[in-house]
Design a protein that fits this description.
182 residues, alpha/beta, Rossmann fold, seven-stranded mixed sheet, two-stranded antiparallel sheet, 6 helices
């Protein structure tokens, strides 16, 4: 089981790396893929070295989940990547697609993945997807689509992804090990 997490310049650190950390603690193979190279600068000026350049991800490679962190202009940069869009749409056919903060509205909605779905996003980002009625909830699961509101919900999102990928027992173990209470 492999999860891909996209990183583009302007991503929000907590929203990206907290779920990565939680999933890796659960023994899930997580690959961070940089859009535009392996060195990616966050929205707060932190440079992170991705595991791979997105261009090095093999065409047709399958993932159990694809995750789009938020942040600006990170979400816009993700939405403008043909390869990110291709992997997200492909993963939605067989796996889980997750997004947080601005990414649900900026990345997932234009791909049609939120049509008829319950979802949430960062307050104010609804204008990027005016046809979607976003929820005020922190984390929303609708089928294989998981969305989260903001950096404050990053741990909850990570725990939810572990639960969906490996089961409640694994999620509970990670949650207990980090002394986190959702």
């Amino acid at each position: 089981m492999k999860v891909i997490v996209f990183l583009a310049d302007g991503f929000e650190e907590t929203e990206a790396l907290c779920p990565v950390d939680v999933m890796r603690r659960a023994g899930i193979e997580v690959v961070t893929a940089g859009v535009g190279g392996k060195e990616i600068k966050s929205s707060h000026g932190v440079t992170v070295v991705a595991d791979s350049d997105i261009e090095d991800i093999a065409d047709g490679e399958q993932f159990a989940a694809a995750f789009c962190p938020g942040g600006m202009p990170g979400s816009v940069n993700l939405s403008q990547s043909w390869k990110v869009n291709k992997i997200v749409v492909s993963t939605a056919q067989t796996g889980i697609v997750a997004a947080i903060c601005a990414a649900p509205a900026v990345v997932l909605a234009p791909l049609g993945l939120l049509k008829g779905k319950n979802a949430t996003c960062f307050p104010g980002c609804e204008s990027y997807a005016p046809d979607i009625a976003f929820s005020a909830e922190g984390v929303v699961v609708d089928g294989n689509i998981v969305t989260a509101k903001s950096a404050g919900w990053a741990f909850d999102l990570g725990i939810k992804l572990v639960e969906m990928l490996k089961g409640k027992e694994s999620a509970d173990k990670v949650q207990s090990a980090i002394y986190y209470k959702c």
